[in-house]
Input
Amino acid sequence: MTKLEQLYEGKAKKVFKTDDENLYIVDYKDDATAFNGEKKGTIAGKGVINNIMSNHMFQLLEKQGVPTHFVEQLSERETVVKKVSIVPLEVIIRNISAGSFAKRYGVNEGIVFEQPTIEFSYKNDDLGDPLINDYHAMALKLATADEIETIKKMAFKVNEVMKAYFDTLNVTLVDFKLEFGKTTDGTIILADEISPDTCRLWDKDTGEKLDKDRFRRDLGNVEEAYQEILRRLTGK
Ligand code: ADP
Ligand code: UDP
Output
């Protein structure tokens, strides 16, 4: 596997071509942003943790029948993934009210829902990733009706697997964001990352936040929270 030219540098990762036209290499950075890039910083060691955690979650999900882009971890920060065309939707599942949901609807954080919710944001930095519904996504040709159905089913399945798994680690899975992509043959698979950057994770006993909210809200002990999640996942 040879790493070729960089295709893209995002806020948290770089993406490289490889000598295999169906594979990319992602390289996780320590850079952190919040509020559509208004707040910027670094979280020491985050790239390593997010790489290991994403790969850990993708392998768990594959075992439970969810297809993902994961191929092989190359180094602390680098992983080989299947090249996909990203469906430009941020798919957000919530089990408990928090963040933009609590703000938008004027409710407290911490309300446990009887059923998980799903919502989509249009992945478009210039527009600030606006909330979008299925019909808007179809009108904008971001995905077909069938693709949206597949994505919803997969996202709820991911939630069931992850919720049960985090429960065994004494962690409450509050909410998270997923991205899906299409392989060259049109199959929808789970892509991007699953990490404390993209999930809200609360300690089950104390409610302590073990995710990027520590950075967003200047709560301190940011690095420690990421390390604690890694420790619970891998014992290291
Ligand atoms: P952002 O683009 O939001 O700043 P990142 O820094 O995480 O986010 O950049 C990684 C980019 O790579 C994202 O745009 C993501 O959608 C894209 N991506 C993730 N997995 C794949 C994949 N398997 N194939 C192609 N692109 C991918
Ligand atoms: N999220 C994400 N990327 C985004 C927006 C949200 O990974 O661009 C995650 C976020 O970490 C949280 C969930 O999606 O776990 C729901 O986020 P919310 O809509 O509450 O937005 P926030 O207030 O976190 O920006």
